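Lab notebook, page 48
Experiment: co-folding of the full assembly
Goal: obtain a model of how the components sit together before planning crosslinking
Operator: M.T.
Materials (sequences as entered):
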Amino acid sequence: MRHTFAIFIGLIFFALLGSCEAPPATEAATEDTSEETVEQEAAEYAIVIHGGAGTITREDLTPAQDSAYRAALNAALDIGEKILQEGGSALDAVENTIHYLEESPLFNAGHGAVFTNEGRNELDASIMHGAERLAGAVGGVTNVKHPISAARSVMEDSPHVLLTGKGAEQFATEQGLEIVDPSYFYTERRWNALQAAIQREEEMGEAQVELDHDEKKGTVGCVALDKDGNIVAGTSTGGMTNKRWNRLGDSPIIGAGTFADNATCGVSCTGHGEFFIRWAVAYDVSALMAYKGISLEEAATEVVNNKLVEVGGSGGLVALDRYGNVSMPFNSEGMYRGYARPGERVVAIYKE
Amino acid sequence: MRHTFAIFIGLIFFALLGSCEAPPATEAATEDTSEETVEQEAAEYAIVIHGGAGTITREDLTPAQDSAYRAALNAALDIGEKILQEGGSALDAVENTIHYLEESPLFNAGHGAVFTNEGRNELDASIMHGAERLAGAVGGVTNVKHPISAARSVMEDSPHVLLTGKGAEQFATEQGLEIVDPSYFYTERRWNALQAAIQREEEMGEAQVELDHDEKKGTVGCVALDKDGNIVAGTSTGGMTNKRWNRLGDSPIIGAGTFADNATCGVSCTGHGEFFIRWAVAYDVSALMAYKGISLEEAATEVVNNKLVEVGGSGGLVALDRYGNVSMPFNSEGMYRGYARPGERVVAIYKE
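Observation: model returned without errors.
Model output:
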């Protein structure tokens, strides 16, 4: 009898122990991630990038195109990794890596950006520094060669976070950033995409304002962790083909397309921007980690593969935490992506 | 011995039970608030408004001004409450309540908005519906009489969330919204505030771009809960006196200045917008409730009186949850605010 009683108490004991371990969030989780990760050693540096998510399948890309995208992703990672290896800042790594992606005609950012309904290139970018949550962004600029640098300048040289349109261009000019003729952003491929979108719209009737969502793919982003433990995230885009009315998507919106906090993670998003704004996607990954004490991978997957999928918000994100753990979830067919850590390099396009 | 053993086991048992209750967040909290609040009965309706937070003390306002503000807040609440009492939607209540505040010269929204450095009125507004998290916003419009209605139209009549500048004005015109001459927004008080800000700036030297933060007070916002359980939040503002470069603050940013989700709460913010963007304030209140299972009051207080205070982000917010509980925290000297529920009416200005 006494033996049975002890076993009974023992079972309750372990059942309770088990139930105590189940809830991942504790009060302490606001300031810290779960106990498991606390003991993790931080990577010396880490960098992760994306070049947009969308309907990207093996059948869509020729072997030459496939190679060109992988080469561009590797070249971009090379730039950021070199800066981090030499002890440079995550801020410089993110800015310079995105410069390369903005200059590449392969991606929908800078040169190679998609066209608005009016046949213009309106560019958006944002950047956030995880130490003090400083942030800067520009929306709808048409003549700034590197929108990501304009975003950095807003963060560093103005009391504001988000400048738009002509005012943002004036600010960039005053700050001595490189100004180009709007024709610099032209690529035949994106011009043809606009003509095709307009034609489809005409065939579907004037009242049809549905956009060519698929042609949004190509937004670029980068998140880096440096030796000082600073996490910086940046995003740059041309938005959606055939967009109207000076529409801004999530890329210039801190908390939606870009977020960074050294205590949790850095995030850069790509996808159907309106959903990423309404679901505060970039910040939500951080909030899940902070408030529920779950890992970066669990948080990023929850947002991209559960929450966004439930409501039809297509896209993905790249993120890293303060230990250099990387997450690159997407719910579309593919996402141009890659990351580098000491002795480690991954570049990928499809679900693989 | 046997007795001692049982007591020992019993102590461990209760110690474990206690430790299990301690963490407020559980997996279920993602979908639901804490068990305590589940049993609460929802108010038939509730509406809460603000007319801006800032350096507002009893000494700042004459008795006549004090009365004028209280009368305006009551009149605004009357409009929204009547709609809700008659079974109307939270969406209509929020829009029409904000119409009144936009038309009042007392507040920094619509007629009575502050001036930019260039001597213009650039208006921002956003609205969000908690049922499906639909949202709309406009930034930097100069000729739309009711920016909150333009935001609603973006939500209902476009595939986008955020339109800006000339594009947003074109959209509002196409949708048949009331367009006014920009001089409609002029008030002598705000014009004089700009002249004073420019003069202070000149005295402090050309390089000085610090803004007159105090003159930002007056942003308006409204959150309502209707009989169908829908929560809608809206915010409208003229931004900061002497702002430059088509700066956008938090008011047109979903997740920063405005957020609504029927499962958690609706929030409208007012304050130093750059901080509210970087701290994703409106969404953060919702995230704290969802992920930590804490109450609206706890979540709103945590964000406004702890997080924002730590970093020097001045301002406040009004919010309500799905039961009609209201929270109106602010960390400045005062906030024009008020709420109404069946048989209950509160209007306040100072810390009281």
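Interpretation: Chain A touches chain B through 67 residues (CB under 8 Å).
Next step: discuss with group before ordering constructs.
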